[in-house]
Amino acid sequence: MSSGQPRDELSAQGVQVAGRLADVSLTLAPAQVTAICGPNGAGKSTLLAALTGLLVPQDGRVWLNGGELAQMADRDRARAIGYLPQAGEVAWDLSVRALVGLGVMPWAAAPLRPGIGVAEQAARVDSALATMDLMAMADRAVSTLSGGERARALLARVLAGQPRWILADEPLAHLDLSHARTLMAALRAQARRGVGVAVVVHDLTMAMNHAARVVVMHEGRIVADGPPVEALSPDVLHEVWGVRGRWLGDVGEWALAISG
Amino acid sequence: MTRLNGLLAMVLLLAAGVSLLAGPVWVNPLALSQDGRVAAILIELRLPRVLLAVAVGSGLGAAGAAMQAYLRNPLADPGLFGIAPSAALGAVGAIWLGAAGVPVGPWGVPVLALIGAGGAMALLGLIAARGGAILFTLAGMMIASLSGALTSLAISLSPSPFALSEIVAWLMGALADRSWTDVWVALPLSLLGTACFVLVARDLDAMSLGMAAARSLGVEPRRLQALLVLGVGLSVGGSVAVAGIIGFVGLVVPHLLRPLTDRRPSSLILPSALGGALLLVVADSLCRLWPLAGGELRLGIALSLLGAPFFLTLLWRMRARGLQAGATGGWI
Q1: Are strands A81-84 and A165-169 parallel, antiparallel or unpaired?
Q2: Checking DSSP bridges between strand A221-226 and strand A245-248, what pairing results, if any?
Q3: pLDDT: is B106 or A203 the higher one?
Q4: For residue A79, which residues of chain B lie inside 8 Å, CB to CB?
Q5: Which residue of chain B has the CA closest to A77?
Q6: How far off is chain B from A85, nearest CA to CA, in Å?
Q7: Domains defined for chain A, CATH in brackets
Q8: Chain A partners of B69 at a C-beta cutoff of 8 Å?
Q9: Chain B partners of A93 at a C-beta cutoff of 8 Å?
Q10: Three-state SS across chain A?
Q11: Tens digit of pLDDT per residue, chain A (260 long)?
Q12: Global pTM?
């Protein structure tokens, strides 16, 4: 236990992973959407994996509510942190309800393991389905869903675990504008309910308009961190992405103009 | 799911009952009490054989379902980990030693087969414990290839033509001329193996989302891997120890039953065990009934003869319908 760690936070301190992360420190706040941006290979997914506890860094520590994540029981960690991986793979042609039901797993009662019963599990699945507007297609096979519906179902899987933290790795990849907005709106709704959300986003306009905080990574380091207007300033855009760009418009409806 | 299990169990009981009566000598159940020889055929020959078919088939079916779930591949087969070929190597070694004059006794074949399976499991654990499914599969294939080569070596160096024919016949897989000893080897191992798969059933469900998501849901990869290898080792090792190499059951049975379930891996393990048992009981009965010069059709050959064309037909239908992208479980 380190002294002075506030109760409700997920925090990486001096995290290093050879070739990918160099001394990264980042503290996520609850009730907020934090966008993690950066070019390919900047270390975004690696940082997310470290914050999820999937990757134990060679140096540095990850703290969850004052306890070290690497020391926590897998099940406790899984209850607190919901992780939406990049690939979005579903190996078997499950129904939407069965897919979403996987999210309840860390809570489910099992032999020698106390947990919630079948009825409560079903209630949580229903609630997640309703939140993502999937009730009408709950019994459909995942293979019959459109890309946007599939992305909603995958997020509903995470919501069914009712995590305190949601870490999503590029959930907007392959989504059209409208579905991307729907998904970001769902993540913001979770943040309003108190959930801390970190989302890796390539679309800077999405980050600018939908995140309360933007973390910019470059070559394994955090180079900017703050409100979107500051973290994605023209100087940062130039330094990190090598483009000359400026933001047009106003809060919530920013557009990026690139002039070279 | 319970309905499917109940149905399969009922059909299995029926098939087992008919199988007890079927054979070169058909047993009239009404004549049982009058004829002592009939009772002897039933209890000493037919009953162990039917129980062996149940034990071997259920173990192979459940192992196939678990392997397909773990590797997220509908074409995975319990043979992939190299455990079956290693068990076969052990059994062949026992036959070889017996022919060379070393007294191995009636337990020699099953014990050495289980040692072979155990060796493969230990090697897998040593090499691939920290790796993912791909390293695991590669290591298993190498072990299978090594065991296969050593088995061929044993055949080519066989001490007598008689040993040669015995080894080759044994490798083909059969349930003929087995005794209660074999039942007591195979049945507990098959049950224990299936119990291992049931213990990791929910973990296998989570694996549908890939290893990273499964771990984020609290799955402990090393526990999953250990129980899976243990389960495959017990069920497949036990089945090879008493019946030789019997292919197709672990591949085809989960495949056929998957569309009848909700496609969650955990929903498929028990049906696959029951379905594998059913398939072997039926196939073995047919082998017994099939008149063939010089004895009966070998079960391993019969399954391949039936299974391969059947599987090709399924592939043909799949081709006709076109591959469904992404969801491999919806294949057929």
Answers
A1: parallel
A2: unpaired
A3: A203
A4: 218
A5: B218
A6: 6
A7: 10-258 (3.40.50.300)
A8: 91
A9: 263, 324, 327-330
A10: CCCCCCCCCEEEEEEEECCCEEEEEEEECCCEEEEEECCCCCCHHHHHHHHHCCCCCCEEEEEECCEEHHHCCHHHHHHHEEEECCCCCCCCCCEHHHHHHHHHHHHECECCECCECHHHHHHHHHHHHHHCCCHHHCCCEHHHCCHHHHHHHHHHHHHHCCCCEEEEECCCCCCCHHHHHHHHHHHHHHHHCCCEEEEECCCHHHHHHHCCEEEEEECCEEEEEECHHHHCCHHHHHHHHCCCEEEECCCCCCEEEECC
A11: 444 445 689 999 999 999 999 999 999 999 999 999 999 999 999 999 999 999 999 999 999 988 999 999 999 999 999 999 987 889 899 999 999 999 999 999 877 788 999 999 999 999 999 999 999 999 999 999 999 999 999 999 999 999 999 999 999 988 999 999 999 999 999 999 999 999 999 999 999 999 999 999 999 999 999 999 999 999 999 999 999 999 999 988 999 999 87
A12: 0.89
Is the ipTM higher than 0.90? The answer is: yes
Quickly tell me which residue has 């694996």 as its tokens: B207
For residue B252, which of B288, B283, B224, B225 has the smallest C-alpha distance? Answer: B283
Q: Which residue has the tokens 């009939």?
A: B38
Phi and psi based region of residue A223 (left: phi greater than 0; alpha: psi -120 to 50; beta: remaining): alpha
* Closest approach of A237 to chain B, Cα-based (Å): 31
pLDDT value at residue B78: 78
Contact B209 A94 (CB under 8 A): no
| Closest chain B CA to residue A82 | B216
Q: What is the mean pLDDT of chain B?
A: 86
Beta bridge partners of B292: B295
Please, what is the end-to-end C-alpha distance for chain A in angstroms? 49
B251 token code pair: 């591949």
- Sequence spans of domains, chain B: 2-325
Give me A94's structure tokens. Answer: 């499950």
Q: Which of residues 87-106 of A touch B (CB under 8 A)?
A: 87, 89-95, 98-99, 102-103, 105-106
Is residue A51 a contact partner of residue A28, using CB atoms and an 8 Å limit?
yes
Pick one of 1.10.3470.10, 3.40.50.2300, 3.40.228.10, 3.40.50.1860 as the CATH number of B2-325: 1.10.3470.10
Share of chain B above pLDDT 90, in %: 38
What element of type H or E holds B315? helix B299-321
> How far, in Å, are A162, B74, B202 from residue A109 at the CA level?
16, 29, 11
Instruction: Output the pLDDT for position A119.
Output: 95
Interface test with A, best of B207, B209, B323 (most A CBs within 10 A): B209
Task: Judge: B218–A78 Cβ closer than 8 Å, yes or no.
Answer: yes
CB contact at 8 A, A257 and A239: no
- B231 near A CB under 8 A: no
Q: Which residues of B touch A85 (CB under 8 A)?
A: 209-210, 212-213, 216
